[in-house]
Predict the 3D structure of the following.
Amino acid sequence: MFAQRFSATRRGARLARRLATHRLDLWDLPYGSPASDTVTLVVAELAANAALHGSVAGRDFELRLTYDRAAGLVRVEVSDTRPGLPDASARPPEDADGGRGLLLVAAVAGRWGVAGRTGPGKTVWAECAVGAQGVRL
């Protein structure tokens, strides 16, 4: 398992993505493999959402990664301190620059959802299936 807090900024989200990719490589899910690319995309989207939409002044967000090698599953959890749930059914206008993060997560993760947490805020989680040597199933 890997867990770390990051500042709720774009820089914090970028660092979360980079450290997640590094951790995946240490878990034998090498950089550039389909599994690494999938999990890194999920981390990038959830961390960006936490920094841009889930931030509360002076509060960090937390990234937690869990790799169940036997099950071939990586679970990504990003917790922030803003109350309220993301609206996964919202569709941005076609010409909008953003608003598609959760749609991407839903497209590449096997499952995802939102859970409450101890203290204020929520945890958005996603599970990504990975096979031997980082091949996405």
